[in-house]
Amino acid sequence: MNYVIIGNSVAAVGAIRGIRSIDQQGNITVLSRERHTAYGRPLISYLLGGLITEKGMPYLPEDFYRQQRVNLLLNSEVAAVDDAKKRVRLAGGETVPYDRLLVATGGDPFVPPIEGLAGKEKVFTFTTWDDAAKLKGVAADIDRAVVIGGGLIGLKAAEGLHLLGKKVAIVELADRILSAAFDRPAGRIVARKMKANGIDVITEDTVVKVEGDGAAITGVTLKSGDFIPCDTVIVAIGVRPAASFLKGSKVEVNRGVVVDDSMATSVPEIFAAGDVAEARDFFSGQKNPMPIWPDAYIQGDIAGANMAGGNKGYSGGLAMNSIEFFKVSTISMGITNPSDPREYEVLTYLDSENYQYRKIVLQGDLLVGAVLVGNVDRAGIFAGLIREKVEVTSFRESLLAPDFGFIHLSREIRDALFGPVGKVA
Asked: Taking the mean position of all CA atoms in its chain, how far away is CA 359?
């Protein structure tokens, strides 16, 4: 069997292991447009800021690809997929045949059409190791930067630049930073922490023009009319599934590559996993992209196993974001901003002075969402309760407690969630 995987991030790693759990002999070829082996993308801000070196970026053992007998082709950009002849065409003209194909290309940064942006020299995106390296390479010439976008990517870019001693301003269109992943109190806590560290945070505004002379940037003009002087712009609006090379094939692409619960696409023998895929949501059942690191690995593992003849199913993507800013840890999972307050019950605890916040979202007797800021040690328990749809009636009053953990769960619940591990109180 000839397996080809396009992409080399966490979904691809899950797929390699999934394939090898069933088929130890088949040929696996990984095509990556990047020049690095798999690395921790959340670490790129620390690479930029100098907290880690390039040696600390890869998360796999050096001999992983050799041990798994993987033919890894770096710097290999895919231009098209010929699903009729079952082959992949590279940008250089070469073709790679496949029996089973996995699309695990992740996302491409979205750069909106902003007046004056084109032709400017110090404009960057911030989603890859090379993005961080490019930014670090010109760091000596950066005095002040404006980050467009107050989501996870934008905040990590701001943190990395701040670590280098640069003046940074974040401009976010929504009424708070982290609006997609967190609720208003959590966003405000993180914003207060960032402001306390000297980062300007501007919300409910956006950049409408990049000012400058020729290739040089002198500042940005906001929709409000305000002007922010800067010499560097980081565009961190978000990402889109990287699936443009599938045009011309019969693979169904909506916002992402549409897959079923086996991670199969609309074309036989072609699968998709990770940020590029549009899979079923755990709660709604609707299909949408789920750019979540653990979920990408799960999808990759399922796809790999099924490519090799297995029969694994996907239980649906659970929205989960985990990130740390200036030593304040944050995690959100599930439904964090319920649309109908009559259907949900929300419990909260807030200690803004100590950057502590906890929000629990209940639907009847079930936990369906949680936001944790400052104390995230037992986030895995919350995720297990959500995924396993455990009734929380017997311990609902303890969910907000800072020490909530195994001790509050019955033996039956612990066994259901964690097996033998749950027997350690």
From this structure: 22
Is pLDDT larger for residue 391 or for residue 352?
391
Q: pTM of this prediction?
A: 0.89
Positive or negative, the Cα torsion across 128, 134, 140, 141? negative
Cβ distance 135 to 22 under 8 Å?
no
| Structure tokens given for 40 | 């921790």
Rounded to whole angstroms, what are the CA distances from 384 to 29, 228, 282, 410, 422? 34, 45, 13, 14, 12
Residue 120, H or E segment: none
Q: Are 280 and 287 in contact (CB under 8 A)?
A: yes
Question: Judging by beta carbons within 10 Å of its beta carbon (0-12, 13-18, 19+), is residue 310 exposed, middle or buried?
Answer: middle
At residue 212, the 3 state secondary structure works out as strand
- Phi, psi (5° rounding) for residue 202? -115, 120
Q: Which two tokens stand for residue 401?
A: 């407690």
- What is the DSSP secondary-structure string of 239-300? EEE--GGGTTSS--BSSSEE--TT-B-SSTTEEE-GGGEEEEBTTT--EEE---HHHHHHHH
Asked if the model's pLDDT at residue 406 lies above 90, the reply is no
Q: How many CA atoms lie within 13 A of 78 on its CB side?
A: 28
Closest CA to 320 of 330, 311, 333, 339: 333
Q: What gap in Å lies between CA 312 and CA 310, rounded to an integer?
A: 6
The strands making up 227-229's β-sheet, listed across from edge to edge, are 207-213, 216-222, 227-229
HSE-CB at 94 with a 13 A cutoff on CA atoms is: 8
Give the SS3 label for residue 301: helix
Q: Cα separations (Å) of 349 from 112, 115, 357, 359?
A: 38, 43, 6, 7
Tell me, what amino acid is at 294? P
The sign one gets for the Cα dihedral 268, 269, 275, 281 is positive
Structure confidence by residue, pLDDT tens digits, 223-275? 999 999 999 999 999 899 999 999 999 999 999 999 999 999 999 999 999 99
Tokens 């996302």 belong to which residue? Answer: 107
**DSSP-assigned letters across all residues of 2-66:** EEEEE--SHHHHHHHHHHHTT-SSSEEEEE-SSSS-SB-GGGHHHHHHTSS-GGGSB-S-TTHHH
Please answer whether residues 405 and 378 qualify as being in contact, where contact means their C-beta atoms are separated by less than 8 angstroms. Answer: yes
Which residues are bridge partners to 330 per DSSP? 323, 373
